[in-house]
Amino acid sequence: MLTQLRRTTPRPLILACALSLVAAYFAVRYPDIKGTSVGSFVSTLLIASPSAFALFRYLGPRKATLSLLVLSIFGYAIESLGVATGFPYGTFYYGDALGPRLAGIVPLLLPLSYAPLVVGAVAAAWGTRLRLLHVLYATLLLVWMDAVLDPGAASLGFWVWPGGGAYYGVPISNYAGWLLSGAIATTLLLAAGQWSETPRPALLDSATIATSFWTGVVVLSGMVAPALLGALLLVYLLARRSHLRAAK
């Protein structure tokens, strides 16, 4: 299977995943290196770009712009609510590593990191005719992604859980929150974009690169469970990408 994935995965994507592992090394080993905030912005933008371009090619300019706008507004809203009230994720706040924050609450970079995950999950979940099952499938994939991402991000100080949590410092309430927010986000994306044709494989690329980065972070941080989940998720996303490629 791994040999097949290597053959069907474009070399630029393999290179991007490899570079993301290098970036993970520097993020973990040299968190205070000069220019970290600028590097975070540039890397987040580069990671988000492949799926954004693919979304414009898949949906067209109008629907793609509307989709990204809707996801951005929702992302800012749900995260601001979370920081201000503790609902639906639990009590947390963002650290300074992600740069300037909107109204001093949520990082301006949020849509660049959040939207590609939702786009990737919806594309990877493609195949069921029932919209409800599609939303459920994509939501569970988002929770899977977050089970890799959140422990790593917390370890880097990207966001902070003052009360800690049972899962590598992250409370279980966070994942209940992701079930809710993920269901809403995937529903909004499908409604705004009116997805009808088989998704382009490249829609998964940003989520795949992000998974590679966060898997590298948790591996280097010695987090066994997130590392295993990240490795499995990376293989799964590449397999779904291969499936979509064959279906086109």
What descriptive keywords fit this protein?
about 250 residues; Carotenoid biosynthesis protein; CruF-like; mainly alpha; two-stranded antiparallel ribbon; two-stranded antiparallel sheet; transmembrane helix; 9 helices; about 70% helix
Strand content: under 5%
Helix- and strand-based class? mainly alpha
Q: Work out the oligomeric state of the chains in this entry.
A: single chain
Mean pLDDT reading: 92
Query: pLDDT below 50 for ≥5 consecutive residues: which ranges?
Result: none
Measured distance between first and last alpha carbons: 20 Å
Q: Biggest sheet, in brief?
A: 2 strands, antiparallel
Q: Write down how many β-strands occur, each being a DSSP E stretch of 2 or more residues.
A: 4
Keywords: Membrane, Transmembrane, Transmembrane helix
Transmembrane segments: 12-28, 40-59, 66-90, 102-123, 135-160, 172-192, 213-239
InterPro entries: CruF-like
Protein name: Carotenoid biosynthesis protein
Give the structure's gist in a few sentences.
Keywords: Membrane, Transmembrane, Transmembrane helix. The chain is mainly alpha-helical. The chain has one domain.
Secondary structure layout plus pairing:
Layout: H1 2-8, H2 11-29, H3 36-59, H4 61-85, E1 93-94, E2 101-102, E3 106-107, H5 110-124, H6 131-155, E4 159-160, H7 173-193, H8 205-220, H9 224-247
Antiparallel strand pairs: 1-4, 2-3
Helix pairs in contact: 2-8, 3-4, 3-5, 3-8, 4-5, 4-7, 5-6, 5-7, 5-8, 6-7, 6-8, 6-9, 8-9
